[in-house]
Amino acid sequence: MAFDHYGRKIHYLRISLTDHCNLRCVYCMPEDIVFRPNAELMQDDEILLFARLFASLGFDKIRLTGGEPTIRAHVVDLVRGIVQTPGIRTVTMTTNGLLLAKLARPLAEAGLKRVNISMDTLDAEKFRRLTRWGSLENVWEGIYAAEAAGLTPIKINAVVAADYNREDVANLARLTLEHPWQVRFIELMPFSGPTAFQTGQMVTAAEIQAGVESILGPLEPVNGGELDGEARLYRLPGALGDVGFIASVSQPFCVACTRARLTADGRLRLCLLREKEVDLLTPLRSGASLEDLRRLILDGIWEKPWGHALADGVIPLNRAMSEIGG
Ligand code: SAM
Ligand code: SF4
Prior knowledge:
Elements: E1 12-18, H1 44-56, E2 61-66, H2 75-83, E3 90-95, H3 100-109, E4 114-118, H4 124-131, H5 136-148, E5 155-159, H6 162-165, H7 169-178, E6 182-186, H8 195-200, H9 205-216, E7 220-221, E8 227-228, E9 231-235, E10 242-246, E11 259-262, E12 267-269, E13 277-279, H10 281-285, H11 290-302, H12 321-324
Residues 21, 23-25, 28-29, 66-68, 96, 118, 322 line the site of iron/sulfur cluster (SF4).
């Protein structure tokens, strides 16, 4: 089992399969970003070895992310390999959905349980502006393919940026009236890359909720207002699905954190919003034993920072979000 020195049991690993992406969302990366050469990224056998290693330390839940995980070569085989790792109980994925029309069924057959699909607006023009060239129609095809393949319950992630999609939150929330989906609004977080954009365009969860309620009326708390993972859940009266708010910046949920992350280049990232990392890939490639690697992981987790210090102006600038895996 992996514990940090605050007594939190860490058993949920998010793996960034690649820092590369087929979109360039304005809040995530600059248009001219230079991705890492493939040789610097974890190779398939290295990812599977890390999955076994983390599972042997009590990690039972894995989310695959990126960058865009679906553009990784052999992604279906990778999912199958991770699903078959003894000790791993759930494998899920966060994706922009563009390739799900083709991949949802094979991924589900390989054992993937659920997907979170990013869709920040229902307006095709605004979607293009936010993603720089994405087609909203492809995302819709991906959502329906995921639902048909049983990758449910579908969760829709919507990052809110003040001058881009602030007016769209009610329309997104309205989706839950007719679909058993969870539409989750995410506060913008600052990283390396478009940092000024991320800090300047941030809308708080309370403001987003007020925007939804001003048009659709009061939301009812689900679970007595308790957190569901990182989201606080609400429901519109009579809705089939839930509306969630992820207030990572304004109301951090660090006390309940169970996560660690593996960056695309094989670094153990201990907190999304802190620069502290432990290099696992270089030792693996230099012949470290499994026992050495296990020790590196356990010592790293022990030192996991309590949480972020954005309120004190500490912004993690050593990486872009896409490399860490959101
Ligand atoms: N490409 C996939 C996608 O877009 O879903 C997976 C990777 S993406 C980095 C994971 C999630 O992080 C997405 O929901 C995305 O909208 C969100 N995200 C990206 N940059 C962010 C930022 N600066 N603050 C908050 N969320 C962000
Ligand atoms: Fe790509 Fe996801 Fe970042 Fe958008 S949010 S640029 S889809 S990694």
